[in-house]
Design brief:
The complex is a heterodimer of chains A (292) and B (240). Chain A contains ten helices and 14 strands. In chain A, α5 packs parallel to α6, α7 packs parallel to α8 and α8 crosses α10. Classes of the chains: A alpha/beta (292), B mainly beta (240). Chains A and B meet through α1, β5, β6 and α9 of A and β7 and β13 of B.
Chain lengths: 292, 240
């Protein structure tokens, strides 16, 4: 068992927000998904106050060792999430972490406050990889802005509050310290790296022009950032970025993470989380054996 | 069936520039016509053009028979290029069946296919009693794939929609092919089901990358809401 912010989890492997739709997956794979659920906690995709359709396609670009996505956070909005998605997500066999994003601190506090009232939600994750429309500052990229926003949100919930850090900043450890100072219970990183792809005419391929790079291409960036954050804060860390195997997960744990999230690898194999958790378990068992 | 499984290639045939591979899948559910699978080679998936492919690729099932599945490939990029190299005893990662396939109709079905898009029509044709089938190919070499749908009328180097009868009352079109062909059929405004293609990372609703615009606004995911859509639901068939 792994302990994380007061939650007792079967193993350290969870999903990255927006990389696994448990409701759609259950439609595709049936109740076998619940019997062999690949994660020890489930992180929802990002929920915003109002519904969003997402970015115009094309939304994907394959790279040498990963992909760029420009999805644009499509979701049903807070009311749609609470009414339609939450009852279905509550049927999952693991704790639910709801990820929210707001374009102002007040909006984020409203989202968190609404989730606070719902017992089905075990913890909250703040997506701060977006501009604050009130100040024009990129919330997650500027430590002082991040501290102000997290401090505004913190009183709205007694549930564990995880701040998802963006790698698109000068000093990710300073951002983690700001989150810690404002009362965050944990940080998660890394989100995708801002990236762009051009078509053969030299025009932006993605409908949203730029997107986020994920997959094995960013794994060593994630290791460096997790290690940098672990050196500067005392919070538990959800480490993620390009994890494909138990060995990769073990590296993030060694760098200071408590949990490891799998994202892009689940696109290649929906049950990747199960395999990675098993490999991690076998690795731990082997390392305890002096003859191996 | 949750997760991907390694399956063995048991047959490979060429039809002009196209390749059909047969895969042994004894444990998988039987697919409905129009459903699809995510495929990747177990060995050497990556290291092609631009060090790709990385993600699996989506393919409608061409035919499903007693523990076996067939897929039709055209060499259009590093993913299809690698899949077309596979031969007997090679292994393939396979996830599926996925998505919503063709729906039954009380109207008279006409199957309309273009190029590699004929694949999901073969699976459908097997369930119908001598359906009318119209196929278009860009060359005589490509048209050799018409053998996969016996009894089809074929046009080469022209528009398959030119083969449609003038009177489409009481008809429902079942179409799959290049976006421009599907857009032309959608624009006819007659009852039609269109099997769309889209680049997708996952195939099971996780990535939200494969969306297509709806007539009522917003987007649908091709992987879980389709790949077969009623033409009337769609705002357009995007060029890519």
């Amino acid at each position: 068992m792994t302990s994380f912010c007061g939650l007792s989890l079967e193993h350290p492997i969870i999903n990255g927000s927006g990389t696994f739709d448990a409701i759609a997956a259950r439609r595709a794979f049936g109740d076998e998904l619940l019997e062999r659920f690949p994660f020890s906690a489930f992180v929802s995709k990002t929920i915003t106050l109002l519904p969003r359709a997402g970015n115009p396609p094309p939304r994907l670009w394959e790279t040498a060792a990963g992909m760029i996505n420009s999805i644009g956070l499509p979701n049903k909005g807070l009311a749609g999430y609470l009414e339609h998605d939450l009852p279905q997500l509550a049927e999952l066999p693991v704790p639910l972490i709801t990820n929210v994003m707001g374009s102002t601190a007040d909006e984020l506090a409203e989202l968190v406050g609404a989730c606070e009232a719902r017992a089905e939600i075990a913890a909250l994750e703040l997506n701060v990889s977006c501009p604050n429309v009130a100040t024009g500052l990129d919330i997650g990229a500027v430590p002082a802005e991040l501290e102000r926003v997290v401090a505004r949100v913190r009183p709205a919930t007694a549930k564990p509050l995880i701040v998802k850090l963006t790698p698109n900043t000068a000093d990710v450890a300073a951002c983690a310290q700001a989150a810690e100072a404002a009362g965050a219970d944990a940080v998660s990183l890394i989100n995708t790296l801002r990236a762009m792809a051009l078509d053969t005419r030299g025009e932006a391929w993605l409908g949203g022009r730029t997107g986020g790079l994920s997959g094995p291409a960013i794994r060593n960036v994630a290791l460096a950032q997790v290690a940098a954050v672990a050196a500067r804060v005392n919070l538990p860390i959800v480490g993620m970025g390009g994890v494909q195997t138990g060995a990769h997960a073990q590296e993030l744990l060694a760098a200071g993470a408590t949990l490891v999230a799998v994202g892009t690898e689940s696109f290649r194999d929906p049950a990747a989380g199960l395999r990675i958790a098993r490999e991690l378990r076998e690795k731990a068992a082997n390392s305890a054996n002096p003859l191996v | 069936m949750f997760g991907r499984r390694a399956c063995t290639v048991v047959g490979r045939e060429t039809y002009g520039p196209y390749v059909v591979i047969d895969v042994h899948d004894p444990d998988g559910p039987v697919p409905e016509p129009g459903q699809f699978y995510m495929l990747a080679a177990v060995d050497r998936w990556g290291g092609g053009e631009g060090e790709r492919p990385f993600l699996p690729r989506a393919f409608s099932v061409l035919r499903a028979r007693e523990g076996g599945l067939s897929f039709l490939f055209d060499d259009v990029g590093p993913g299809t290029h690698r899949l077309m190299e596979l031969d007997r005893e090679d292994e393939l990662w396979l996830t599926g069946p996925l998505g919503e396939g063709w729906r039954p109709t009380d109207r008279r079905p006409i199957l309309v296919g273009g190029g590699v898009g004929i694949a999901p029509l073969a699976a459908l044709a097997d369930t119908l009693e001598s359906p009318e089938i119209l196929l278009g190919f860009r060359s005589d070499e490509h048209a050799r794939a018409a053998e996969l749908l016996p009894g089809a009328r074929v046009i080469t180097g022209g528009l398959v929609t030119d083969l449609l009868p003038d009177d489409l009352s009481h008809v429902e079109l079942f179409a799959c092919g290049p976006p421009a062909m599907l857009e032309a059929i959608r624009a006819l405004g007659v009852p039609a089901q269109l099997a769309l293609e889209s680049g997708m990372a996952c195939g099971f609703g996780a990535c939200f990358g494969c969306v297509t615009p709806l007539v009522d606004g917003g987007y649908a995911r091709v992987c879980v809401d389709g790949p077969v859509f009623a033409a009337a639901e769609l705002a357009e068939v995007p060029a890519h």
